[in-house]
Amino acid sequence: MSYISKPAVQANAMSVESMFQQIMETVHKSHLEIAELRQECQELRQANASLQREVREGLQNGNGSRLGTPGTQTPAPSSPMLRAKSPFLTPTSAATLAVPPALYQPSPLSDNAVSCFPFGSRDIPGFYVVIPAGGAGTRLWPLSREEHPKFLLDLTLKGRSLIQATWDRLIPLSSPSRTAIVAGPAHVRSIMEQLPELLPSNLFCEPSAKESMAAIGLAAAILVQRDPNAIIGSFAADHMISGDDAFLSAVAEAVEVAKKDYLVTIGIAPSHPSTGFGYVRLGEKLGMQDAPNARLVSSFKEKPDARTAAAYIKTGNYRWNAGMFVTKAAFLLQLLQEYKPELHDGLQQIAARWDVSENARQAALNEIWPGLEKIAIDNAVAEPAAMDRRVAVVPATFGWDDVGDFSSLSDLLPAESNQPRVLGDSGLVLTEQAAGGIVVPGSGRLVSLLGVDDLIVVDMPDTLLVTTRARSQEVKRLVKKCRESGWKHLL
């Protein structure tokens, strides 16, 4: 009969107790770290809210009229004359403002709401704006469609679509003669109707969607034929920005860095650990006198999971990648030639014939465009160039939102306390004990909600979407199912 001595039992008990104590200490430490991380995230949110409040309060004069436009955080005006009733703009739907033009004019770097604009010229010599206007905005379906995507919609009910707001924001930096838009054939007519100041020669029509590298590369190749020293800035047509001076300052810095042969991106200060955006890791400072905030890009990071995103924010060394790039057109083509030579050569051949004649341009597009690689600018040149220390970032402080789904859209709309946001005519929405979420009464019929919270209801004449705010990122799965099930005409 074997037995275990008392000292051995005591030793084993002590060993188990020690292990248990170590485990509890580890768990406790993890809880403390999680609590600390939550506290830091909360402090970031509070700091961001405080900054936005200061911006709003700082842009009020003694009579309460607005002197600037805090953009995404500004409630829609209450006056019926200033509030559009539908996100679908018509030539007559833009608000007509009965104010003396000598005293007030639309703020050119924001949401086109009425504001006093005391600044002088903001033109940046030699700077060309490129606005890629593509994508169907599938996460905003059925409001956004392939034939009428989100950049053509007035998603803030201020009388201007997203592409019009983008134009208003950027035009003082370049002028219509140096502002180009790249779009597909289905959207050319609508863009020209919404932007009558756009020169037809500056609307570059791509036959089919080829991702951002082909679109931006085509614009760069055409513009460098017209001006070999052109510096271009690419800004998406469907993003929202708040903070006029901070945006201007970031772009001006980016231009100065671009002159030194860098591909420059503008990094957005993250307000929360988002899993829907890519991230830029900040590297060493460049030490440029005219661009004191500029740094090298250490690396680009794909959309992370929640835990990784929180860890990124905790370090303070990461910024959101908003897809804004500023560089010499010739330098971008040089990078493209190094990393994607076939794509470079194809775009150069098209650009060489672009301004010759309509027939020459169309022949080149028909012959070359279908064979071009479909790839994003980040993957094609930004990521490999960052490894070679040729990508810089200007950390910025302005507010930014890509309006990527109905959840983010609802944050941009005004609402009564504990009520759903309404995009459209609020008289068509009836609620009882329903809080949060967003309702789009696009069909013209009454939408009634009882005892449900955080719902997304998009009622269009030909289809109805009902989901929860928590699952708004998954709407694109329904778009795929519609296509597979024979409902392509609703896309």
TrEMBL record:
GO terms for molecular function: mannose-1-phosphate guanylyltransferase (GTP) activity. Transmembrane segments: none annotated. Residues 437-481 form the MannoseP isomerase/GMP-like beta-helix domain. Residues 59-79 are annotated as: Disordered. Residues 60-76 have a biased composition (Polar residues). One of its GO terms (biological process) is GDP-mannose biosynthetic process. Residues 130-412 form the Nucleotidyl transferase domain. InterPro entries: GMPP_N, ManC/GMP-like_b-helix, Mannose-6P_isomerase_type2, NTP_transferase_dom, Nucleotide-diphossugar_trans. SUPFAM superfamilies: Guanosine diphospho-D-mannose pyrophosphorylase/mannose-6-phosphate isomerase linker domain, Nucleotide-diphospho-sugar transferases. Pfam families: ManC_GMP_beta-helix, NTP_transferase. This is Uncharacterized protein.
